[in-house]
Specification:
By secondary structure, this protein is an alpha/beta fold. Helices cover 30% and strands 17% of the residues. The protein is globular.
Length: 464
């Protein structure tokens, strides 16, 4: 039987097969943990007198509640005692259970979905979980990767397996040539606007076609990261030479690398394999995208107008955003710009933003934050001088962390402010109570920072 990429990886990890009355038991190759969803899980273990089954397959970092600024004396200005306790609790728990942890003194510390791939801990053909929705990021390597709840975090810590029913498969094929100014972020925002926030529900998505094949790993991670925003269980891209080159020589790259690459290459979907659903998109129709509502499915090309809708939920969304049907998002005055998050805080994105901001100034009324995804990204960016470009433009260059993506560390906007963000969610209050969020690519964010209003990156020439 011809098999898809998802089928091949799934079948290798079934411990107990699914029945009508019971989900399958799936072995997990890598369990990523951070400070937000792990404390209750460790308490569950202690209450039951259990240990961590496979600490060698568990990897921890701190990212959500970590300050992105330092005090003058080097101390860290936590937004609250609760945030500090979250971080301290994670560090205490992982020390107790002998779990590799990338805390304050680690050169690898960063957002969990940035530092995992950087370490080479993310492998093609693996199953990966984390108590975080955007674990789908790791599917860019040909892994089945998905977020789990706090109780499930405890289960995986205890037995390295998870109960799960097999999802259906969907292929999203994008072929052709992307237009100038169109980035991987625009591609995934276009897809979500097309299929909706429930379009992927019940499915594992495989992204196929020359558009994804031509993307760097940074771009592929951006696409897979937002699969969850379409309701999908996970998103995947078949491993290839781009994948192998990225993983080569990293800390957790297998020693028998050539053999591993040959095995990973065989994971690709067989020619003639059938998906439960297929969607075909012409690359030429995709433009730079912006959102206008309070979920990622409410997206439009940057040069179009807000569509009419009779949906009461969408009407409420527009009221919250202070946007009307027929309005143009292009040209709207912006209060803050955020470049960062597990979607867009890697080197490709920072280079793209810097190429636009180089030798220019951000608008005087506007505040811009640039937050690298990890300590490694920060070091690489500073080595290339990107930090100087951002600071010379008037932007804040911060320490690594999740930052304004969800504002758990205090990086938030003020009520009523309009924020252009490279993150993945524009929910009500996501970036602070009453804050309004427009999701965009790093290029659009940088262009907006200069203009002070939502700006089409195609209108600004990049300075080399």
């Amino acid at each position: 039987m011809k098999k898809t990429l998802f089928d091949k990886v799934w079948e290798k990890h079934v411990v107990v097969s699914e029945t009508e009355t019971h989900p399958a038991t799936i072995f997990i190759d890598l369990h990523l943990i951070h400070e937000v969803t792990s404390p209750q899980a460790f308490t569950l273990l202690e209450d039951r007198g259990l240990s961590v089954r496979r600490p060698d397959l568990t990897l921890a970092t701190i990212d959500h509640s970590t300050p992105t600024l330092l005090n003058k004396d080097g101390s860290r200005p936590y937004v609250s005692d609760e945030a500090r306790i979250q971080v301290d609790t994670l560090l205490s728990n992982t020390k107790k259970f002998d779990i590799e942890t990338h805390g304050w003194d680690s050169k690898y510390r960063g957002i969990v979905h940035v530092m995992g791939p950087e370490l080479g801990a993310t492998h093609p053909g693996a199953t990966i979980v984390c108590g975080d929705s955007h674990t789908s990021t790791h599917g860019a390597f040909g892994a089945i990767a998905f977020g789990i709840g706090t109780t499930q975090v405890g289960h995986v810590l205890a037995n390295q397996c998870i109960l799960m029913r097999k999802p259906k498969t969907m292929a999203i094929n994008v072929n052709g040539e992307l237009n100038q100014g169109v980035t991987p972020k625009d591609v995934i925002l276009h897809i979500i606007s097309l299929i909706g926030i429930g379009g992927g529900t019940g499915y594992a998505i495989e992204y196929r076609g020359n558009v994804f094949e031509n993307m760097s790993m940074d771009g592929r991670m951006t696409v897979c990261n937002m699969s969850i925003e379409a309701g999908a269980r996970c998103g995947m891209i078949a491993p290839d030479e781009v994948t192998f080159e990225f993983l080569k020589g990293r800390k957790y790259t297998p020693e028998n690398y050539e053999d591993s690459c040959a095995e990973w290459l065989s994971l690709s979907t067989d020619e003639g394999a059938l998906f439960d659903k297929e969607i075909n998109i012409k690359a030429e129709i995709i433009k730079p995208m912006v959102t206008y509502g309070t979920h990622p499915g409410m997206g439009i090309p940057i040069d179009s107008t807000v569509p009419q809708s009779s949906n009461p939920a969408e009407q409420a969304s527009l009221n919250y955003m202070q946007i009307n049907e027929g309005d143009k998002i292009l040209g709207m005055k912006v209060d803050k710009v955020f470049i960062g998050s597990c979607t867009n805080s890697r080197m490709d994105e920072l280079r793209a933003a810097a190429s636009i901001l180089n030798k220019k100034k951000i608008a005087p009324h506007l505040k811009a934050l640039v937050v690298p995804g990890s300590a490694q990204v920060k070091a690489s960016a500073e080595k290339e001088g990107l930090d100087k470009i951002f600071k010379d433009a008037g932007a804040d260059w911060r320490e690594p962390g999740c930052s304004m993506c969800l504002g758990m560390n205090g990086d938030i906007g003020l009520p009523g402010e309009l924020i252009v963000s490279t993150s993945n969610r524009n929910f009500m209050g996501r970036q602070g109570p009453g804050v309004r969020t427009i999701l965009v690519s790093p290029e659009t964010a940088a262009s907006t920072a200069i203009a002070g209003v939502v700006e089409d990156p195609r209108n600004l020439k990049k300075i080399k």
